[in-house]
Amino acid sequence: ARSDRLPDLSECAREPIQFLGHVQAFGCLLIISNDWVIQNASANSTEILGLTAGDLIGTRLLDHLSPGAMHDLRGKFQTLSGEDESGRVFGVDLMGNGRCFDVALHRTGRSYAIEFERKAGDRRRDDMALVQPLLARVRKGRTPVEMCQSAVRGLAALTGFARLMVYRFEPDQHGVVIAECLSEGMESYLGLHFPSGDIPPQARALYTKSLLRIIADVDAPVSPILPDRDPEGRVVDLSLAVTRAVSPIHLEYLRNMQVQASMSVSILRDGQLWGLIACHHPEPHHIDYETRSAVELFTQLFSYELNLCEEWAERAQVERAHDLHERLVMLFEAGVDFGTGLEQIAEAIGGVVGFDGLALCANGSYCTQGLAPTEAEFGRIERHLARAPAGRIFVTDFLDQACPEAVAPERQIGGLLALPLKQHPRRFLMLFRREVARDVVWAGSPTKISEEGGRIHPRKSFAAWAETVRGRSAPWSPAELRAADLLRVTLLELVLKLTSDQNAAGQ
Ligand code: BLA
Q1: CA–centroid distance, residue 271 to ligand 1 (Å)
Q2: pLDDT value at 3 more than 70
Q3: Angle between helices 289-333 and 128-139 (to 10 degrees)
Q4: Where are the beta strands (DSSP E) in 407-500?
Q5: CATH code at 2-310
Q6: Average pLDDT, integer, range 362-379
Q7: Whose CA is nearest to atom 28 of ligand 1?
Q8: CA 138 centroid distance within chain
Q9: Left, alpha or beta for 300 (phi > 0: left; psi -120 to 50: alpha)?
Q10: Mean pLDDT score across all residues of the chain
């Protein structure tokens, strides 16, 4: 029966996820005018505040709250200026009866949204104080992946989630789990890839504005906002609401993954979504707003550190690309050539461009290193490339599409980067990359795919992703292509020199 209410899967990208009109059970939401009159209230205000939507709508907020609480909230409201700004106040005794709440507020159009969550009574921990030591540990990581690993470990301790992952978006927008922290009995997703559609574009756009969302219990009843329109007749925009109920499609996905609670925090780079810290729990799991705020702050600082580390790695790669010229010139001056020194040459090139094998024809014999086609297949690719524009690198992450039927599928070659060595006849040094779908495997039996229920399931997503990338390699990055272009010039120079040396020797 549940499926009947779900939108068509092909309509995913059009689902208006910020206009679904409901909040989750853990908090309630009021919309108030700028003179504090309550315009809308979620139906669960009864459970959270002890006041029904009917009691609230049309009255002023100060009719219900203690003077102390009103003072705190007013002060916060005054700091909000811009459209997207939000404020938070923790541990407010709303009614003056000792029951404390965390409060979130933000502007929405001409009104304000204000959300309340009950605070656990026995709270003694200062989460903000934990952010600094966590960050200090992250900084010790030497690579982006090490930093991510340390971040999920730290957040596991802070939040109690059972599976925490860093999910990184690739250039084609699909994603891969690059770091993970599991508690006992949880299935590992490390290294798995998922298609871009698992997080549709409107969700990604929202996640660059609203950095953390929690789904405390996928089966908890959601609560409607009453009435469902604002005074101007528009559906309430919940983009920045922390209690926003999530897409029913996504809830189905989580249920199929046996996840009962989920939280994800955006990792941004230059304002774009770089990835997510995705957290799962097999039971309902709510962490209060103050802890979530500490997680959000940590993730913002962590993103900054991660950006620095990535930029550093990128700069180091550019330096290595420049050094490669010197290294190759020195090798050749020491008498090495493509035939005798292929291993050293491959190692030097491997420092700036990632590949799984290379091949070329040197002095009439076919030389290879690692993953490579047969000589006949190599010849077929070379004949194909002879038609490509001269004096440029040729690159593809889908060899079978670029040069159909040149190479047998058993070779599992997905990517090719060809560097011209000679004009007449045209000769190339070719770097090969393995087919990526064969590199990655789903943890667990692939036959389980068909046994599992539900229309959307990460196993099926993974299978669909593997299908779309069959025959493809990981993409060549812009930095690698820049390095390859420098390498192209170096190689032409070296080959020219080799030929003139040989000519001189022959005279
Ligand atoms: C949202 N999908 C999400 C989110 C994640 C994923 C992390 C953010 C919400 C959250 O915190 O749970 C996907 N989660 C993953 C993936 C992994 C994971 C890939 O843990 C892997 C380890 N999803 C689909 C399909 C559709 C879809 C086919 O698989 C649409 C037809 C929709 N996903 C979808 C929507 C949202 C979403 C609409 C937004 C939910 C919201 O914020 O309201």
Answers
A1: 20
A2: no
A3: 10
A4: 413-422, 427-434
A5: 3.30.450.40
A6: 93
A7: 198
A8: 18
A9: alpha
A10: 89
Of 199, 259, 440, the one to substitute when testing ligand 1's pocket (max ligand atoms within 8 A of C-beta) is 199
Q: Which atom number of ligand 1 is nearest to the Cα of residue 189?
A: 22
The answer, yes or no, to whether residue 449 has pLDDT greater than 80, is: no
Question: What is the distance in A from the centroid of ligand 1 to the CA of 257?
Answer: 11
Give SS3 for 291. Answer: helix
Q: At the topology level of CATH, where does 335-435+471-506 sit? A: Beta-Lactamase (3.30.450)
Q: In the numeric block, which tokens belong to residue 240? A: 């920045």
Q: How far is the CA of 250 from the centre of ligand 1 (A)?
A: 5
Q: Strand, coil or helix: what is 241?
A: coil
How much of the chain, in percent, has pLDDT values that exceed 70?
92
pLDDT score at 109: 83
| Interacting residues of 397 by C-beta distance below 8 A, sequence separation 6+ | 414, 415, 433, 472, 473, 474, 475, 476
Nearest 5°: CA angle at 133, between 127 and 138?
Answer: 115
Ligand 1, closest atom to CA 13? 30
Domain boundaries, the chain: 2-310, 335-435+471-506
Tell me the DSSP string of 329-385.
HHHHHTT--TTTTHHHHHHHHHTTS--SEEEEEETTEEEEEES---HHHHHHHHHHH
Cα atoms in the 13 Å half-sphere on the side-chain side of 460: 13
Helix or strand holding residue 273 (H, E): strand 272-281
* Residues 117-160 pLDDT 10s: 998 766 667 888 889 999 999 999 999 999 999 999 999 999 99
Which atom in ligand 1 lies closest to the alpha carbon of residue 245? 43
Most informative mutation of 19, 198, 263 for ligand 1 (most atoms within 8 A of CB): 198
Q: Pocket around ligand 1: residues whose beta carbon is below 6 Å from it?
A: 9, 12, 15, 17, 165, 167, 175, 177, 189, 194, 197-200, 203, 213, 215, 246-247, 249-250, 253, 262-264, 276, 278, 456, 458, 461
Buried b (16+ CB within 10 A) or exposed e, 216-250: bbbebebbbbbeeebeeeeebbbbbbbbbbbbbbb
pLDDT band, residue 204 (cuts 50/70/90): very high
What would the two tokens of residue 406 be?
A: 């040149």
pLDDT 10s digits, 234-287: 999 999 999 999 998 899 889 888 899 999 999 999 999 999 999 999 999 999
Q: Give residue for tokens 């990632």.
A: 354
Alpha carbon nearest to ligand 1 atom 26, residue:
198
Atom of ligand 1 nearest to the CA of 244: 43
What pairing do the DSSP bridges indicate for beta strands 223-226 and 261-269? Answer: unpaired
CA distance 22 to 42: 7
pLDDT-derived band at 12 (thresholds 50, 70, 90) equals confident
Q: Residue 351 pLDDT > 60, yes or no?
A: yes
